[in-house]
Write a structure and sequence with these properties.
180 residues, alpha/beta, 12% strand, globular
Length: 180
């Protein structure tokens, strides 16, 4: 199953329409979408406006692939459970958001091995085809210091967003007695 989410704040019909078009050509692949307050009709998707946190987590865990706006909650959830994620950032020029902060977020998160960023419906469909052809397998992770730094940043954001205790380095002064 493919799970799609647009978050809870704004509709995102550009992404949902593209996903619906893809689903029309791939009827054997179930696609479940959380659509928010979208006025659109998506006949090839199984849709719901909103999900409880438990329902969201269950759908997320069952999914083989997640398609989403570039919201940090979704990105963090995908990183936490290791799901392949296709991000389509909302764009200010299409009046999908008030700023292009999702574009900035997507550009940074594209460095993660489980994240693919698309800008339009045609590319979304192409990436969905590619994911389907690969059996929804994650590409091999590229090991680099930049990826490690990004993983550390994601961990810090998760701790902040989900209010988990932060593990800090010890601030205990070193033993200065000279004893060996």
């Amino acid at each position: 199953m493919i799970f799609a989410t647009v978050g809870t704040q704004l509709p995102f019909d550009r992404m949902l329409t593209s996903l619906d078009n893809w689903a029309a050509h791939n009827p054997g692949i179930p696609v479940f979408a959380q659509t928010g307050d979208s006025p659109g009709s998506f006949p090839h998707l199984d849709t719901v406006a909103s999900l409880s946190q438990v329902e969201f987590q269950t759908r997320f865990e069952r999914a083989r692939l997640v398609v989403a706006h570039a919201g940090m909650g979704t990105i963090l959830s995908a990183a936490e459970v290791g799901k392949p994620l296709i991000l389509m950032p909302r764009r200010m020029k299409f009046k999908e958001h008030r700023t292009d902060h999702q574009q900035d977020t997507a550009n940074e998160m594209a460095r993660l091995s489980n994240v693919t960023v698309v800008q339009d419906g045609q590319t979304l469909c192409k990436e969905l085809d590619r994911a389907l052809a690969s059996g929804f397998q994650l590409p091999p992770a590229a090991a680099s210091q930049e990826s490690a730094d990004l993983e550390e940043l994601l961990g810090a954001i998760q701790d902040f967003v989900w209010d988990r205790p932060v593990q800090q380095a010890s601030t205990k002064p070193a033993d200065q007695s000279g004893a060996a």
